[in-house]
Structures are given as structure tokens and as C-alpha cells.
Design goal:
This protein has about 260 residues and is of the alpha+beta class. The protein folds into 3 domains: about 5-75, Multidrug-efflux Transporter Regulator, Chain: A, Domain 2; about 80-110; about 120-265, Multidrug-efflux Transporter 1 Regulator Bmrr, Chain A (Alpha-Beta Barrel). It is about 40% helix and about 25% strand. It contains 7 helices and 12 strands. It has helices at about 10-15, 20-25, 50-60, 65-75, 75-110, 140-155, 225-235, and strands at about 5, 35, 45, 120-125, 125-135, 165-170, 180-190, 200-205, 205-210, 240, 245-250, 260-265. Strands 4, 5, 6, 7, 8, 9, 10, 11 and 12 form a 9-stranded antiparallel sheet that branches. It is elongated, with a radius of gyration of 28 Å.
């Protein structure tokens, strides 16, 4: 070992990395000591390792996980800059979604929820032609429009009525940065055959708790207040949701759509 090597303590002070961080990065293979004394266990670092150490420290300040940092360290400075800009844009979109959600919660707390007309209804068994895929709230509208167009076109080409109501079934939680399974379906009659990624299934007869969504609350995140109010109403009335919610188009009483949960007592 040559004299310019620095003990871990001095190297950490020079690069603003704690002893704990240096041990972690050594274990992860991000910043391995240039020399470890076999008798004392002291760890020594070479001066030329300082730029890498400072880069690791800056990347950690961004909150990046160790695995992501390891991948970035192996890139050229130009490629690393591209990856970081892409990551920053994604973080901006995620924070924008959080800001929308927080604003919706603040509005609900300040002004109360919207005036709602929640009721029960019995729905007969219904055959549907549907498409199911993962979606976020960002691409949900485009997906719904395309799926509706494709399903109605398939019904028309098959010689069946294609003006049935549309329903959207949210099988998972869907947000701006979290995909969920969403099924878009059109009610139909007759021996319709599935084709491609379009499927045919029968929705059983059921009782639903439903609410027409008032104007101004149709879009995310304000629509979440309507979901919350309907779920709270179901609990207050001693009922239980038996499946995931759906949205039906057009809605009742002139609403663009209803939100409904199948329920049991």
C-alpha cells in the first residue's frame, strides 16, 4: 500500500460520507476500499476514489435506492445525465399526481363533500362484451374511448345491436402512477363471439348501491370523494360490497355516469 491512501474516517470526512455509509457501499460493491489491512481490519481508500464517492453521495441525496445508483455509476456521464433527466420527469409527474390528490382532500375538508343521491337498485343479469387491460388515470380516458369504439364495431360487424350501455369495471386501484386492471364493457344480446382481446361474459343479477356523479366531480381526483361517500354510506347502512366498483354510462338523472357497488346485507 502506498502512503497517499486514506483511512476510512479521513476519506469519509473528505467526501461527506459517514462510516456507516462507507461500510454499506463497500458491502454493496459501490465503493470498495482500495486496501484492507488483514491484521487490523482498517479500510483504506485511494484519492482517485473520491470523485466516485462524491457522486454516490449526490445520488443518495436524490433519494435513489442503492440498486439504481449502482446502475448509474456504470454509465458514461452523458448516459447518466439522460437517465437522471428521465427520472426527474417521472418524479415531477408523480408529485403532480400527489398534489392533485392533496388538493382534492383539502377541498373536501374545507367545503364538505358534494350533495349526493345514493340509492339501491336491482340489476338483471347482463351479457357484456369487454376488454380488460392495465391502465393509469392518465391514459384511462383514451383507453375507454378506443375500447368502446372497438367493441361497438365488433357488435355491428357481427350483426347485433351495438347501442347498449357502457360500463367500466375497476378491478384494482388506479392512480396517476399506479396501474390497475380496468375492464370496459358494452351490454349486448345474442350469441356474440369473442375476438382478439375482446371477451364475452355474463354479469349476474345483483343489487347495487349507486350514485349519479354530480357535475364537476367526474374526473380524478375529485371523483374519489364520491367513491368515499358511497363506501361510507354502504357501511353506515349495514351493507357490504361484494365486488369491485363499476361506472355505468350514461348515468341516472342526467349524470354523465353512475358509480355502483354490488352489495349484500
Amino acid at each position: 500500500m502506498t502512503r497517499p491512501h486514506l483511512l476510512a474516517g479521513r476519506f469519509g470526512a473528505a467526501t461527506r460520507l459517514s462510516p456507516k455509509a462507507l461500510r454499506l457501499y463497500a458491502e454493496q460493491g459501490l465503493l470498495v476500499p482500495a486496501h484492507v489491512d488483514p491484521q487490523t481490519g482498517y479500510r483504506y481508500y485511494a484519492p482517485e476514489q473520491a470523485p466516485r464517492a462524491r457522486l454516490i453521495a449526490r445520488l443518495r441525496q436524490l433519494g435513489l435506492p442503492v440498486a439504481r445508483i449502482a446502475a448509474l455509476l456504470d454509465l458514461s456521464p452523458q448516459a447518466r445525465a439522460v437517465e437522471l433527466r428521465t427520472w426527474l420527469e417521472a418524479q415531477g409527474e408523480r408529485l403532480a399526481g400527489h398534489a392533485d390528490l392533496v388538493e382534492a382532500m383539502v377541498r373536501q375538508a374545507d367545503f364538505g363533500g358534494p350533495a349526493l343521491s345514493i340509492a339501491l337498485r336491482d340489476v338483471p343479469a347482463t351479457k357484456i362484451v369487454g376488454r380488460r387491460r392495465l391502465a393509469t388515470t392518465i391514459d384511462l380516458d383514451a383507453y375507454m374511448a378506443q375500447a368502446q369504439t372497438d367493441i361497438r364495431a365488433h357488435l355491428a360487424a357481427s350483426g347485433f345491436a351495438h347501442d347498449g350501455s357502457m360500463s367500466v369495471h375497476h378491478h384494482d386501484l388506479t392512480t396517476r402512477d399506479s396501474e390497475g386492471w380496468v375492464e370496459v364493457a358494452i351490454a349486448c344480446e345474442g350469441p356474440v363471439e369473442p375476438v382478439g382481446d375482446l371477451h364475452v361474459r355474463l354479469l349476474p343479477a345483483r343489487r347495487e348501491a349507486f350514485v349519479p356523479v354530480p357535475a364537476g366531480h367526474e374526473d380524478f381526483p375529485l371523483v374519489l370523494a364520491v367513491y368515499d361517500a358511497l363506501e361510507a354510506w354502504i357501511e353506515r347502512n349495514g351493507l357490504a360490497a361484494t365486488d369491485s366498483p363499476s361506472e355505468t354510462y350514461p348515468g341516472s338523472d342526467g349524470a354523465r355516469f353512475d358509480i355502483a357497488y354490488p352489495i349484500s346485507s
